[in-house]
């Protein structure tokens, strides 16, 4: 054909002209299209800057909790807030700062009734902190494992529904929680508030030569995550958290709500790692519940990640459950512990 390359060239020229016109509109001095890209990068850090809280503005109160890498304070900043501060000895390189900023930029995109309110962050090293609203209630962990509270079926379902709503929202926005557990779920006069989503990389596991296993944590690890645990965790050895592994965590939370206990109760860590990694599910011998209730558990704990249901489906199933705890009927015996690969 006559001058097909010519056509290509002219198209490129037009495209180039459009680009440079765009950048002329957005920035009179830069006709180079590459500058447009730079502008959008700086607009990201610009919008991140809008959430920057100068550390001096925070009125830090008492310590409410301590982790290996974080200290949580209650405090004041235009009202009661929780301040989650990274420990100073830990923040000393560019990489941690970048990871922190990435997680902050995820956090600021969340607005949902059942998610803790992100208010801003201190992003100037060595003072790195995340400021959220202060949860007034107790965590599900405290209710279940410390106070030994027993929720009736209707309350249990209501709590699970709110968790699914908050989590469904996160997943719809492409955010993986990575650390969904009863310690990160607050109950405030009947309302569920989920905390610590997407913060795992900066707050846990990244430092040190040894794998540290916080108590209770193993019960939340999906088989594929369990299998990638290494005794010596390198800094970049990210664990393969996905929306599917969040669903597995939800299964564990559902079990805790129903049983008032941890799954795998009494087993040593080595046994849990070995069994879950091989596809064995925790025993359901302690669980007296209807078939539908157990089915949710089994589906969330599926060995294959893609066989686990999405939160939208979990919500539908939860809605259909009878609100009264069903008595065992002869057709639904309690020993439904379909352990391996079922
Ligand atoms: P974990 O979640 O493993 O308990 P954290 O470092 O996230 O560890 O929290 C430490 C303590 O601070 C916990 O007792 C937790 O309940 C509390 N905490 C964290 N965030 C908040 C918050 N937004 N409001 C109230 N308490 C909080
Ligand atoms: Mg937490």
TrEMBL record:
<keyword id="KW-0862">Zinc</keyword>
<dbReference type="GO" id="GO:0046872">
    <property type="term" value="F:metal ion binding"/>
</dbReference>
<dbReference type="GO" id="GO:0006950">
    <property type="term" value="P:response to stress"/>
</dbReference>
<keyword id="KW-0808">Transferase</keyword>
<keyword id="KW-0479">Metal-binding</keyword>
<keyword id="KW-0067">ATP-binding</keyword>
<keyword id="KW-0418">Kinase</keyword>
<dbReference type="GO" id="GO:0004674">
    <property type="term" value="F:protein serine/threonine kinase activity"/>
</dbReference>
<dbReference type="GO" id="GO:0005524">
    <property type="term" value="F:ATP binding"/>
</dbReference>
<protein>
    <recommendedName>
        <fullName>Kinase suppressor of Ras 2</fullName>
    </recommendedName>
</protein>
<keyword id="KW-0547">Nucleotide-binding</keyword>
<feature type="domain" description="Protein kinase">
    <location>
        <begin position="58"/>
        <end position="335"/>
    </location>
</feature>
């Amino acid at each position: 054909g006559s001058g097909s390359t010519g056509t290509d060239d002219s198209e490129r020229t037009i495209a180039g002209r459009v680009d440079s016109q765009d950048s002329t509109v957005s920035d009179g001095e830069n006709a180079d299209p590459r500058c447009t890209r730079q502008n959008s990068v700086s607009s990201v850090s610009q919008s991140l800057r809008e959430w920057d809280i100068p550390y001096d503005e925070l009125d830090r109160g008492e310590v409410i909790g301590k982790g290996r890498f974080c200290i949580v304070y209650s405090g004041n900043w235009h009202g009661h807030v929780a301040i989650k501060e990274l420990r100073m000895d830990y923040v000393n390189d560019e990489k941690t700062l970048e990871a922190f900023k990435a997680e902050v930029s995820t956090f600021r995109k969340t607005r949902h009734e059942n998610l803790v309110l992100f208010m801003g962050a201190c992003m100037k090293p060595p003072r790195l902190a995340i400021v959220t609203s202060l949860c007034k209630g107790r965590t599900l962990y405290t209710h279940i494992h410390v106070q030994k509270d027993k929720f009736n079926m209707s309350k249990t379902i209501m709590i699970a529904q709110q968790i699914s709503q908050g989590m469904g929202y996160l997943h719809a926005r492409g955010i993986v929680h990575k650390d969904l557990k009863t310690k990160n779920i607050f109950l405030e006069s009947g309302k569920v508030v989920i905390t610590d989503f997407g913060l795992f990389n900066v707050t846990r596991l990244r430092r040190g030569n040894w794998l540290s296993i916080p108590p209770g944590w193993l019960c939340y690890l999906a088989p594929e995550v369990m299998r990638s645990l290494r005794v010596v965790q390198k800094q970049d050895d990210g664990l393969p958290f996905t929306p599917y592994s969040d669903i597995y965590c939800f299964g564990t939370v559902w079990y805790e709500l129903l049983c008032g206990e941890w799954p795998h109760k009494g087993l040593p860590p080595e046994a849990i790692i070995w069994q879950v990694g091989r596809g064995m599910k925790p025993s359901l011998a302690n669980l007296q519940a209807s078939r539908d209730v157990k089915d949710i558990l089994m589906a969330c704990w599926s060995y294959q990640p893609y066989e686990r249901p999405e939160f939208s489906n979990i919500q539908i199933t939860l809605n259909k459950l009878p609100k009264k705890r069903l008595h065992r009927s002869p057709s639904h015996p309690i020993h439904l512990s379909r352990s391996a690969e079922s």
